[in-house]
Every structure is written in structure tokens, then in C-alpha cells.
Amino acid sequence: MKPTTSHLVVAKRILRFVQGTSSYGIQYSKNQSDELAGYSDSDRSGDKDDRKSTVAYVFMIGNAAFSWSSKKESVVALSSCEVEYIAASMTTCQAQWINLLLMELQLVKDEKMELRIDSKSAIDLAKHPVAHDKSKHIETKFHFLRDQVNNGKFEVKHYKTDEQIADLLTKPLKQSSFDYLKKKLGMAEASN
Fold it and tell me: Domain with 42 in it: what CATH number?
């Protein structure tokens, strides 16, 4: 790969992010709610070189994040529905592991975890096991989400894009959106 000016711009953006958040941390408190929720998001074809998307998830307990991931997907998605569905499927795999761990630690009973997705078409695809023309090309492994939703293990809900915490991990945001979602994530300036 030959670095270009656009690569330098991205590197500078990352360094500014690290510099601007190095004094921040996630605050946990004893009195926070024990509600569990997972957020999933993606950017469609975010990498201009190979057109692959970045998919991300964030899991919250109460008002603080405790698990998150952002990674470049291994396949090129053909639609925004597909890439959101892939992100939600990745989130479901992690959610199942988290649920099993928390049940083993006896911190939760076998409750349905809510997965918050900002794509109505991906939610529709997950809830309705009909063979949609739009989904025939989606790799079988990503239909794990549909299987888990239909078995009642997870509930997928539409969540407004403005409130989608996983946006922080998939795309550059305006400063006001970044600050708002950073606060929702549970990040605050650490006191010495």
C-alpha cells in the first residue's frame, strides 16, 4: 500500500482524538442501573481503497460502556441494509457470550438483552425469517442474528441514529455529536 495524503489526514484525525481524550475515562458507580443493552453500527464502504465497511458494537451496563469493538469487515457489503445486518450479527455473537458470562457469574438471569440498531431494514430482516430477495446474497454466518431473535434470546429495537453510541467507533462526527455521544458512553474527564 502506498500512503497518500488521505492516509495522513486520517492519521492526524486519530492523533487529535487521542490527544483530546487522553484525560478521559469511563465512570462506573455502585448506584447505576443494571440494565444491559448492546448498540451496533456500521459505515457503508468506509474504506475508499477496498470499499469494505467498519462495523462496531458497544455494550452498556446502566450508563457506562463495558465492552466495545470496532473492526473492518472481511466482506464487501452490497447495501446499507447488509452492512448494518452484518454489524448486528457480530453484536449478537458478542451479546451471547456476555449473557453466558454474566449468567455464570450469577449477575443476571436468562433475560433477553436489547440490541439497539439504527437500521429499520436490518431489524426487519432479523425479525422475519422469510427468504427476502434482498438477503439471498448475504453469507449464511450472518443469519445467526435472525436465528437468535426468532428463538427469543435477543430483542432488536430501532434506535435513532443521533442516539447510536456505536457511531463513535465507525465514522468521523461533528464535534457536537462527538461530545454528546462521548457523554452517553459514560466518558468524563478524570479527576486527579
Answer: 3.30.420.10
